[in-house]
Amino acid sequence: MSGAAQQYAIIAGSGFRSFGSDAEGTVIPTEFGEPSGPVRQLRYAEHTVHLLPRHGDELLIPPHAINYRANMMALQQLGVDSVIAMNTVGVIARDIHPGQLAVPDQLIDYTWGRQGSIYEGRQSIEHVDFTAPFSEPLRQALLEAAGRAGISVNAGGVYAVTQGPRLETAAEVDRLQRDGADYVGMTAMPEAGLARELGMDYACLSLVVNYAAGRGKKSIHADLEAGTMTAKMQAMQLLRVFFGAREA
Asked: How many domains, the chain?
């Protein structure tokens, strides 16, 4: 990652409905169709950062119906090198709590039926190396920004990607825990795989907003409101430090 040479994009998840909505956006057509919504530009100090709403401006697109290929292709067409994926997750690990942030370093994909590759009839297949699904330099840059901002972030952990849009059963979460998962969400795949195929760095900045099914003392939705607000405020501050500390 080299400062001015990098072009960044943020993919905003369900916790960020009003994020950047006052900026004018442009819908970028791709060979896979149109992305979830218009791409807007945010200014952080001297940086212009692209912003794409993953679920659309009105949050009407559920996780399994997102046109992930169009989203990622649109960003590549704009010259994006690095993608910060904002998403909300439930926590399975016992030492992590709602209201915190996480930067996972691994994932397990439990989704099905999603169009998850650019190679379907487009060009010769390349089996990309996906040993480490998230870009380590980008992960470390996010963690360093968190340190500068004085924000505690859970560094690492396994993100289990489920199909949605319903939440999981307690038994399903038990299975995810046996598989080694620390967080559960619905959107990191096929985003991460497509980013790798398209040659873009990709890392998740995950907002821990609730205890996963069977893990909390209250209902999941009772955790959500407070957990989302607390984690969102920290995430916005982390982004300001991440971009504000970089050279133009």
From this structure: 1
- CB environment 143-180: b (16+ within 10 A), e (fewer): bebbeebebebbbebbbbbbbbeebbeeebbbebbeee
Q: What is the pLDDT of residues 185-211, one digit of tens each?
A: 999 999 999 999 999 999 999 999 999
Smallest CA-to-CA distance from 140 within 127, 150, 153 is with 153
pTM: 0.92
Query: At residue 183, what is the residue type?
Result: Y
CATH code assigned at 27? 3.40.50.1580
**Helix, strand, or coil (residue 20):** coil
Confirm if 67 and 187 have CB atoms less than 8 A apart. Answer: no
Three-state SS at 165: coil
Q: What is the domain extent for residue 61?
A: 3-118+125-244
**CA angle 110–95–231, rounded 5-degree value:** 75
